[in-house]
Structure formats: structure tokens, C-alpha cells
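It would be a great kindness if you could assist me with a short task in structural biology. The matter concerns a single protein, recorded as an amino acid sequence and a row of C-alpha cells. The record follows directly beneath this note:
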Amino acid sequence: MKRDFLHISDFTSQEILDLISFTAELKIKLKNKEIFSPFEGHSLAMIFAKQSARTRVSFETGFNMLGGHAVYLSPDDISIGKREEVKDIARVLSGYNDMIMARLFDHQHIIELAEFSNVPVINGLTDYNHPCQIMADIFTIFENRDNLDDLKIVYVGDGNNIVHSWIHLATRIPLHFTCICPEGFEPDKEAIDFISDSDKSTFELSHDPINDVVGADIIYTDVWASMGQKDELNDRKKIFAPFQVNSNMLKSTGKKTLFMHCLPAERGREVTDNVIESTNSIVFNQAENRMHMQNAIMVMLAGKM
């Protein structure tokens, strides 16, 4: 039966733990140049409504390393939902390809793509969420800590798609998740209600970037204005200035806190250069692990794990 990956909560708690273990194995195989070709003779269609360096390179390189062929479709190739109906694109591409990955603006488009496709669909990002990123992040945390016990994640910044995916993960993996954001920039109420209805984790919404980072194992941030919000940047710079991740914030946690960022980073804005280049930073390990976790997800969805 076809499975898609649109939200982290599409996977069970056990499946997420299994994927973490499998990602570790797969990463070693690829680092050692072992031949593992589950996608020999297979093709992956990659739809991009939003530009991206990491998403394209990680999926295209990863699928090729696993023996398959990836086809890049730029924003100009498919104006999804504009030049052609999403359901038509879904049926056409799933007739040509064995899997579809899409990086889109409108979250409803990824839902519709999966509904009308007869091959697995993977969410490479929408304005609502970024599930592949957070799956890579939790693997990176496990890799650096050797466990996920008593984990306190503090996200500082805009309550955006990254936060929504962390919330979905928190309904599957026990952790304490704090979102510290300016007033008016909270995550969607639907996402907050989703974690409130789960007894798996604890969630805190805060507007205090000074006191509520205490005890953080991880401090995570993202750009203050995402793609499609750049016209708001000047206003956001003033509002978000107190939420910059800097060395003083890291020191105030009282722990050897790791720093994470999904990239691209606007250094000197949401994070200082000395933090992203510090020994606390696992940002580039995190970026590499996008490919390894996505590989594991694709192998799982294809039933080849």
C-alpha cells in the first residue's frame, strides 16, 4: 500500500526510532563507498516551487547514490497550481516516476499531490512544515548525544514551519520543546492544539529569550523572514533583535548547549558568526544529515528497508 511522508506524525514513534537507526547504518555504508542500490532502475521527480540548494542537492545526490535517477523540475518547469492543476501533475508524474518529492509554498498542494499520485510523495517543505529537516535534526541530536533522554529543545525566532514540524515530532518522541518568539509571531493554533492533545511531550510557548533558554540542550533558530516574507524584513529586524542567538544567550543556558540552524543563515542577524562557527555548533553536521535521513525515508517508503 502506497505511503507518503507529508508530516512527521505520518510515522509512528517506533518507525521514527527505526529510521534513526537505519540512517546511522546507511550513512556508514555511503561513507565507506559500499554498493547499496535499492533504486536501480528507479526515478525520482523533484518539483520545486521554492528554490533551494540543500533540498535539491541532498535529494538528487542521495537518490543517485542509491542507484536511481533524479529529475529536477524548476519553478519555471511546473507552475504548480497555476499553469496546471495539482491533481493533473500528480497523475502525469506518477506515470513516469517511482517517487515524487515536492518543495512548495501552499501546504494544500502537497496534500493534493499525494492524494492523486499513485507513487509515494515526500514533502520537501511547505509554508506549513518541513518534516525532512526535523527528521534529520533529531538524528543529528542522537548522533551527538548518543541518546534522546530528557531532551530540552529551545527554538528561538519566528513560529514558522520548522516549529510546526518540531511540534509534530514532539507528539511521537518524548521531549520538552519550548518556542520563544515575539508576540504576534506564534506558531499556528492548530499546531499548538495538536501537541496539547498529546501526552507524549511538554510544550512551552514563551516570549522571554533571556530566562527561558535556561537548561536548553539545543538552541535552534531560523531566518527571521522566510521566502515570501522578505518585504517584511525591515520591520522584523526591529521586532526580532532581542531574539538573536549570540554567545551571551548560549552562556545563559547553564549547560554545554548545542546550536542548530536549518540554513541558509543570515549571519549577524538571527545568529552571530561566532556562534555558528563555535564548537557548540552542529549546523553543518545537521546539513549533511539531511541527505542521509532523506535516503532512509525514501528507502522505507519504497518498502526496501
